[in-house]
Design brief:
The protein is of the alpha/beta class and 181 residues long. The chain contains 7 helices and 7 strands. It has a single domain, classed as Endonuclease, Chain A. A 7-stranded mixed β-sheet has the order 6-5-4-1-2-3-7, sandwiched between helices. The N and C termini lie far apart (44 Å). It comes from Thermomonospora curvata (strain ATCC 19995 / DSM 43183 / JCM 3096 / KCTC 9072 / NBRC 15933 / NCIMB 10081 / Henssen B9).
């Protein structure tokens, strides 16, 4: 495996892309230390309504959107939703307010479409030219990111993006499909 970038090194890539950043997320759970308290409160029925305000990620996506450099993503989720997926769906409203376009695709449909869901695969496609493959440990914690511009890898991720985006639902449409508001 190649040298893995840390979170700080990865942040630099998000500030440097020129046209677009797309993420394909296929994990049902992420173990993110900075989310633990907010997740706990959400699961206890006391969601942290101020959690997103002022966070660097939202500032970054807001700035990029204003510059015409959109962040988009497709989240592949198992239905019925697990605790983390319900939490992430709730949090997505703040990502969307900050300028991200997040879509949802059911895992069974994603598998039928040939998307890399088993084992889970998470990656960013930056400017249609660079792939950042995210690695996680056995406890779903971020372990680092591998960057490649290998033409075959980039082409595969571009094709996955096209298929995923074509079939994914907006957050609102996905909520309706679940019977929610």
């Amino acid at each position: 495996m190649a040298h893995l970038l840390s979170g700080g090194e990865l942040d630099g890539l998000f500030d440097a892309f020129e046209r677009s950043a797309f993420r394909l997320e296929t994990r049902d759970r992420y173990n993110v230390p900075s989310e633990r308290e907010s997740l706990r409160r959400f699961l206890a029925g006391d969601p942290d309504e101020d959690y997103a305000r002022g966070r660097p990620w939202y500032d970054r996506t807001r700035r990029a959107a204003a510059e015409g450099r959109p962040f988009t993503r497709v989240r592949v989720v198992t239905v019925p939703l697990g605790d983390y997926s319900r939490y992430a769906l709730w949090c997505a409203r703040d990502n969307i307010r900050a300028g991200e376009d997040i879509r949802y695709l059911e895992r069974s449909q994603a598998a039928r479409l040939g998307l890399p869901v088993e084992p889970p695969h998470d990656a960013w496609l930056l400017d249609d030219a660079t792939v950042v493959i995210l690695h996680f440990d056995a406890d779903d914690a971020f372990a680092g990111a591998e960057v490649t511009d290998d033409p075959a890898t980039v082409a595969r991720h571009r094709a996955w993006r096209q298929v995923a985006w074509e079939h994914a639902l907006t957050r609102e449409a996905f909520l309706r499909s679940l019977g929610g508001a």
